[in-house]
Specification:
It contains 2 helices and 6 strands. The longest helix is centred in the N-terminal third of the chain and has 6 residues. The chain starts with a strand and ends in an 11-residue tail after the last strand. The radius of gyration is 14 Å and the shape is globular. The protein is mainly beta. The C terminus is likely disordered.
Length: 104
């Protein structure tokens, strides 16, 4: 696979059709702000928000919340009626201690 391109939500939204056609892997930095359904979430960065789909098998073992910064890597899925979403293949938690959260 090719290296994921670091982009913003706005860049993905603006280029969604082209990114979808080329099956481009994109990398975004931000926070997952809300769960919409079983595997659907809102992802947000400083430029806007976008729907993302995360298959349970790609969820990190470490718990995180709407304040945890993450990198998401995935494929852009553009649909004229449904809008743009990202099918997430990788989630990296940023600034979390190695080995997960500290709990005693």
């Amino acid at each position: 696979g090719s290296k994921a391109k670091l982009m913003t939500v706005k860049q993905v939204a603006d280029d969604a059709l082209k990114l979808d056609r080329k099956d481009t892997m994109v990398k975004l930095e931000g926070i997952i702000v809300e769960q919409l359904g079983d595997e659907m979430y809102w992802f947000e960065d400083s430029t806007g928000k976008i729907k993302i789909e995360i298959d349970k098998k790609y969820m990190p073992a470490t718990e995180f919340n709407h304040e945890t910064k993450v990198f998401i890597i995935g494929e852009v899925d553009y649909d004229l009626l449904e809008g743009t979403e990202i099918e997430v293949k990788t989630i990296e938690l940023i600034g979390q201690p190695a080995g997960g959260s500290v709990k005693n």
